[in-house]
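User: Before I run my own analysis I want an independent prediction to cross-check against. Here's the chain; please return only the structure tokens and, at the end, one sentence I can use as a sanity check.
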Amino acid sequence: MIHITLSDGSSREFDQPLSVQEFAASIGPGLAKAAVAGRVDGVLVDCEFMIAADARVGIVTPQEPDGLEIVRRSCALLLAMALKQLHPTVHLQNGSALGDGFFYEFELERALNLIDLAGIEARMKTLAATNHSIRRLATNPHNSSLYLIADFECVSLGPHIPSTRVLQAFALEHISGTSPQRIYGTCWSCQQELDDWRTPPHVIVVSMDDRQADYAQAVTDAIRRSGVRARADLRHEKVRHKIREHSQAVPYLVVIGEKEQAGGFVSVRSCTGEDFGRMAVDDVGAWLKSTGIAGVCTDAFASRLAPTGN
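Assistant: Structure tokens:
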């Protein structure tokens, strides 16, 4: 007999091993449909993972941070599959969840551009709608695994969603580099969340490089909790390029480099280049909110930032 304890402390008994997906179905069809992974004795696992001994088990859905990260990681896998179908000679390198979305890095004999993104995104949407299952075939060293979607195999850090039908709210946003290149996208649990994300932000959090990505996203989330619309630019681009680009679109920039991350603070500047110095993470959201934000720069700019009901 297998005893499974749920996160609320209740328990269930089963007379034979069962998968995380089957366990979710035993609780209810709604939970089984929403499940993207499981948490078995604190470890995240795929929905196909077999529970063969007594364990504490939780069902992970996109409504929690771990679940949304898994959805985004799987969207990166779908991007790789679309790239391989559209460009068979592509050399896929690596991809994962990143901030509010995902990325994939690759090499191709010609550089892709923004025009190419529309076709790649369309192929991704077709693949998602086809509802391919995503299966783990084997575990490799360094915690990565070989996953299969239809006839596409790819090594990736798991777990991944059980099928592509979960991927219903994503968009490709940027492409950068020459060789290799990276495509960046955003992904959410539903269309409403994606639409809300597309509302013009009040502030952009800019990271110096990949090493500050997690800290920059944590700062972004903290600013959002204060009631200020914020977005992080975690692209692998030169920080001067990112600052120049966003200075034309948002009233404030929060810049994060090695010193900011090490000290637990941020550097704040306006779209006109005014430097407001360093601020504690817990203070920056309240300070930004106190500025009024919506009248900064020009009237035309302010109108682009007008609330849209979210």
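Sanity check: Residues 65-86 form the longest helix (22 residues).
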